[in-house]
Design goal:
7 strands, 5 helices, alpha+beta, 38% helix, seven-stranded mixed β-sheet
Length: 142
């Protein structure tokens, strides 16, 4: 691997810079986890980091858009968002059950003081980054 082309935008860096200190590192860790997972995922050669609805988002050729954000109205948590019409979150519930806290069909929610199960989250990220290749598989290749 290691041939990942990462395309990013100064606008994304600005959003990360504007997160409050207490959550910025956590958001940055999620960001790094997405990039690391993309680097390790076969068939992912280009990862575009952009803003969608003002939120840091990741787009790949065969993937489903992955977003992440922290919101002032729920300051004690931050989240990773998935396309709600996809089978992603339902599949994460099926495979990982209570490892994560979910919001409907669209998000995995993290509490500020929570230790994130990284190996499992990377499986979720990988499923999103390759979604259109794995969507026919019962558990999306997880």
């Amino acid at each position: 691997m290691g041939n990942l082309k990462l395309i990013t935008s100064p606008k994304v860096d600005a959003v990360f810079a504007n997160y409050p200190g207490f959550v910025r590192d956590k958001m940055q860790s999620l960001r790094e986890l997405v990039i690391e997972t993309a680097e390790e995922t076969e068939g992912v050669y280009k990862l575009e980091e952009t803003l969608k609805w003002g939120e840091p988002s990741f787009v790949t050729k065969d993937g489903s858009t992955l977003r992440m954000d922290w919101k002032e109205k729920t300051p004690e948590q931050y989240a990773m968002y998935f396309h709600c019409t996809s089978r992603l979150v339902d599949t994460f519930r099926l495979v990982f059950n209570h490892k994560f806290q979910y919001e409907g069909k669209r998000a995995i929610v993290f509490q500020l003081n929570q230790k994130i199960p990284k190996a499992e989250l990377k499986e979720c990220i990988k499923a999103a980054l390759t979604y259109h290749k794995v969507k026919e598989l019962i558990t999306l290749g997880i």
